[in-house]
Amino acid sequence: MITIEQASSGDIAVLERVLLDTVTWLNDKGTPLWGASEVTWDALSKKYSASDFYLAYLDGAPAGCMALIEDDPFFWPDVPPDESLFLHKLAVTKAARKLGVSDALMDFSKSEGVRRGKTTLRLDTHALRPKVRAFYERHGFRHVGTKVLLGKYHTAFYEVDLHSAILTRNKNSWNAIADSFFGVTALPAYGCLCPGEDELRLFPDLTGKAVLDIGCGSGHSLLWCGRHGASELWGLDMSDRQTETAERLLRGHGYAPTLFCSPMEQNPGLPPGYFDVVYSIYAIGWTVDLQRTFTLIASYLKPGGIFIFSWDHPFLHCVEAVDEKLVFSGNYYEPAPFNFRKLDNPMTLYNRRLCDYVNALAAAGLAVERMVEETDKETLSRDAEFSSAYYAPGKAKRFPLSLIVKAKRV
Ligand SMILES: C[S@@+](CC[C@H](N)C(=O)[O-])C[C@H]1O[C@@H](n2cnc3c(N)ncnc32)[C@H](O)[C@@H]1O
Fold first, then answer.
1. What CATH number is attached to the domain comprising 216?
2. 310 CB near ligand 1 (under 6 Å)
3. Distance CA 220, CA 184 (A)
């Protein structure tokens, strides 16, 4: 297992060892990168503090490191302050090569950049090292320039837009798992162990109405809207596998939908002020930019139009079941995106608080009409086996697993 921890002054000797191991290995290969004297703490401490470094451990043993700093005027004199995180001194020990440590450090550096509110991760590297450059390019870095520094160091400059890096990874993973989500979580269901639309009646009469589904998945919610009289079925999803499936499903039932393959953070050509209802069933939490997404959604709605969404309740990621008890083990305030695997595909999600949703709706000009924090009656009335599952009925008996919100464009 690979873990990554921020270093402290007690880790300086370990850092020196990891870096020296890399120096020795690259020298032995005949591709020197840094001199041994450059990776002593005496030399490093002129530019870095210990807490700038992160150490990677493979099964508990130090296996790699990197430094992440917020200011780098020597290499990046023209970059505006506060915008970027700069990556330096990425190293992996010889024994840990090709075991995923450098990939884990790359993923971590992107998450850390987003956690610190940065939009861009930047790095410089030896311009004459095609393998190293290919590694960064495989991780989504874009080559933005080359310079010869101090008359002899051929340096290539790379950057990655942190939001688009997450979107690309999530899109690839959704494409890979699309078939396993055929008709999963779709209207009239809103989410996990919560009341559905048949009971809540949040939607207006859809007869003759134009509806737009954000994160339409396999198209089953749009099918429900068509069966309830909606005259125009529009949908958006960033997975081309999902939009193809939705197109097939809806056409197979005699509907002619207008579907876009696009992230919800962008307008792919949707008409402004056009829709009576915009909704999103278990997709909104995937956005990398909640405010931008809500502002776009408001712009698609007619004045007085309705927006409905469902997503995991913000408590869900904070509470786990341990030894037949529910333990509040997470941090409600932690804004860092987290990486996880869904059906063995890497994905990144953000933790958000209830106020993040409500304040973003308000700023977009969407007035909340109803908020639902309920578990369905059936789950509440039956005895629930205690289980450690993420969506466990034992949790649902104590707090809502899903949040449902209805708002109106003012
Ligand atoms: C759980 S599924 C939604 C199910 C769907 N609402 C239904 O009714 O069948 C989540 C969907 O969100 C999509 N998605 C994830 N991130 C997205 C983003 N940033 N923009 C647009 N779609 C996204 C995924 O491709 C996936 O199809």
1. 3.40.50.150
2. no
3. 8
